[in-house]
Amino acid sequence: MTKAVKSQIIDVSLDYDQIRLQLIYHNLYRQLRFARNKYKLSINELLIISGIRLYTSLISQEFTKGSIMKFVSYYNARRIAYYFKSLEEKGYLYVHRTTGDRVYYRININTVEIVRDMFEGLERTNRRFCEKYNVCL
């Protein structure tokens, strides 16, 4: 026979910044559905594109595989190479210049549009979710 455990008090104070982050995590596949279907990209390709766009906005217009691997810090070198090859074949990245054995890439205007569509989908999905469950943020 199991022994009854007394319920613990749960802190239900709401931290709205944490709820926003949880909404992003909880609805990630739904939020990116529009961009995935429109551009025929995987979730991982979209996450790489998002990281590249953030890198190009904050640090430099051109980038290497290694710099994105360190910046995104989620994928190993083999996976980064795979996604770069895929994105390059689809025309979202291009080789800007080569210095020795370093290859520098840049994104084109279509890649910026993908990120814009990703965040429009994120806003739309979160708004629907909040309306459905009567959540005000």
Walkthrough of the structure:
Helix content is 61%, strand content 9%. The protein has helices at 16-26, 28-31, 33-39, 43-58, 65-72, 77-89, 109-132; strands at 93-99, 102-107. The protein has a two-stranded antiparallel ribbon. The chain is elongated, with a radius of gyration of 20 Å. The protein starts with 15 loop residues before the first helix and ends in a 5-residue tail after the last helix.
- Ends apart, CA distance between termini: 45 Å
In terms of structural class, how would the helical and strand content be classed?
mainly alpha
H/E element order: HHHHHHEEH
What is the number of beta strands?
Answer: 2
Q: Which percent bin holds the helix content?
A: 55-70%
What is the radius of gyration computed over CA atoms, rounded to a whole number of angstroms? Answer: 20 Å
Give the low-pLDDT segments: none
Major sheet: arrangement of strands: 1-2
Query: What percent strand?
Result: 5-15%
Mean pLDDT: 87
Indicate the overall shape: elongated
Number of helices: 7
Largest sheet: 2 strands, antiparallel
Key terms for this structure?
single chain; 137 residues; mainly alpha; two-stranded antiparallel ribbon; 7 helices; 2 strands; 61% helix
Write the layout of secondary structure elements.
Blueprint: H1 16-26, H2 28-31, H3 33-39, H4 43-58, H5 65-72, H6 77-89, E1 93-99, E2 102-107, H7 109-132
Antiparallel strand pairs: 1-2
Summarize this structure briefly.
By secondary structure, the protein is mainly alpha-helical.
